[in-house]
Amino acid sequence: MVWFRSRLTAVIDFIRAENTLSNPFKNILRLASGDLIAKAMSFFAFVYLARILGVASFGVLEFAGSVLTYLLLIADGGLEMWGTREASNAKDLKALAAQIVPVRLLLAAISFVLLLLLLPLFPHYPSLRAVLVIYGLTVFAQAANLKWLFMGQQSMSGVARGLVIGQAIFAATVVALVHNPAGLLWVPVLRLAGDVATALYFARWFRRVHGRFSLRTSWRGMLPVLKPALTIGLSLAMGLLNYNFDAVLLGFLRGPTFVGWYNAAYKLILVGLSVAITYFTGLFPALSRLYVENREEFRVLVRRSTELWLGFVVPLVVGGTFLADPVIRFLYGVAYANAAAPFKILVWSAALVVLRWVYMDSLRATGHQALDLRCAGTSAALNVGLNILLIPRFGMIGAASATTFADVVWFAMSYYYFRRTVLPHESFPSLRGPLIGGVAMGAALWFTPLMDWPLRALLSLVIYLVVQLLFGNLRFLYRKTSRE
Hints:
Largest sheet: none
Helix content: over 70%
Number of strands: 0
Number of helices: 17
Strand content: under 5%
C-alpha cells in the first residue's frame, strides 16, 4: 500500500509538473510547438513528393538536397551557432548583426560560386544540374536570416512563428503546383520562396525592434568573428559528413533510385528526431547563459535533458525496429519497401545522435569547441572510410551500418570529454527504467504480429510509459536536483 501510494503521488506530481517547469524548458517548449508544426508540414510535403515523383525522380531531388546541405554549411561557417551563443549575452544586438551578416553573405557567394565550378562533375541524372543551381540560391536566404539572433535572446514564440511561415508556404505550394514528375523543378523554386519568406519575417521583426544596421564591414572586423565560428563550423561539417556522406556516395555509386529508398528512410528518422532537434536548438543558448550565470542550474539542465532523451530514444529504437516495414509501406507505398532494411539500422544511429547531443552542445556552449571538433573529426573520418569500404559491396545496409558505428564512437568521445572538462563528477542517468520499459515494449510488439500496426504501436507505447511511471522516470520534468 505504501509503495502504491508513493507511485500515485509521483503521477500526481507529474501532472502538476507544467507549473514548475524552469524557464529554459518553457522557452524550448514554445519553440518546439512551432518547429514541430513546421517539420510536420515539411515531412508530409516530401511524402507527397515521394509518391508523385516516383523513386528515381525523388532520388534526384534527395541527392540534390544532400549536396545543398554542404553548400549551406559552407555558407554558414559555424556563424549561426556562434552568433546564437553571443546573442544570448550581448548588449548591442545591432552591432552583432552588422558584424555577422556581411560575413555570411560573403561565405554564401563563395559557396554558390563553388557549386557552379563543380557542376560538371555531378552525375548526368535528369534535371539534376538545374535543381542544384536553384537550390544553391537558398544560401543567400540563409545568410540574410536573423533567426539566430532571436534564438540567442530566447524569443522562442516569435521564432516558432517564423519557422511555420516558411514551411507552410513550401508545403502549400508544393501540393498546389506539383502533380507529376514533370513538376520536379518547381520543388527547389518553392523551397527558395519559403526560405526568402522566413528571412523577410525575421528582418522585419529586427527592424521593428532594433532598427536598421549597416552591412559595411572590414576584413579586420571579420577575423575576430571567423576564428571561433569556423571551429564550430568544422565540427558541424564533420557532423554533416556523418549525416549524409552515405547518401551522396550512394548517389554516385548506385544511382538515384537507391538514394530515393535510402533518404525515404532518413526522412522518417528525421521525423522521429524533429522534437529533439528543436529541443537542442533551444537548449544551446540556455546552456551558454547558465554556464556563465549559475553552474548548478547548468548541471541540472544537462542532467534533466539527458534523462528526458534517454527515455525518448528507447521506444524510438524498439518501435522503429519492429514497425519499419508497415510504416514505410503506409507512408510511401510499396515502391519504397526497400527503405525498411536501412531504416532498422539507422534508427539506432538516431538514438546515439540524440544522446550525444546533450554532451556535444555542452562542450560547445562552454567554449570547448576544439574538443567537440576532435570528436566530430574522428567520427567523420571513420564514417567516410567505412562507407567507401562497405557501400560497393553491401549498398544501403553498408551505408547505414557505417553511419551507426561512427555515431557510437562520437557519443563515447563526447561523453568522455564532457566528464573530463565540463562536469567531472556527473554520472550518466540510470538505464534501469528505460531498458526494462524497452523490453516490455518489445515483448508487446513481438506477441501481437496479427494486430494492425497503429494499435500495436499504441499498445506498446502505453506499456512503456506505464513502466516509466512505476520507476518514477518521468519526474525529470520537475525535479530540481538529480544526483544519483
